[in-house]
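Hey, I was hoping to borrow your eyes for a little while. I've been puzzling over a protein and I'd love to understand its fold better. The fold is given in discrete form, as structure tokens running alongside the sequence. I'd be grateful if you could look everything over and explain what you see. No rush at all, and the record is pasted right below.
>
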Amino acid sequence: MQQLTNAEEQLMEHLWQLEKAFMKDLLEAYPEPKPATTTVATLLKRMIDKQFVAYTEFGNSREYYPLVKKTDYFSKHVNGLISNFFNNSASQFASFFTKETNLSQTELEELKKIIDSEILKKKK
């Protein structure tokens, strides 16, 4: 899976949230100052070429929709991150993540619950 640029990722976030959208819906989703229509059109064209987005035509209008699920996109990135920066060691990544992100005690306890739950699933 190819990577998206930051600008493409921001647009993809809007599309994931909207599920399907016309150009005007995408422009409305942006905070002020909004990007130019031509900028969004260029981003959409690149994202169609990368096979992240497709569209349905209604007369002169195109309704865009994502071809990639948000969870699939980010899981590929997290796995790439672990592979590239943490010698493919999930525990090195987890250690870095828990120490360097200033998680609160509550957030750490939530993480622990998630991990314990996954351990139970793997035991079955």
In short: The chain has two domains: 6-66, 70-123. Residues 6-66 form a domain with the Arc Repressor Mutant, subunit A fold (CATH 1.10.10.10).
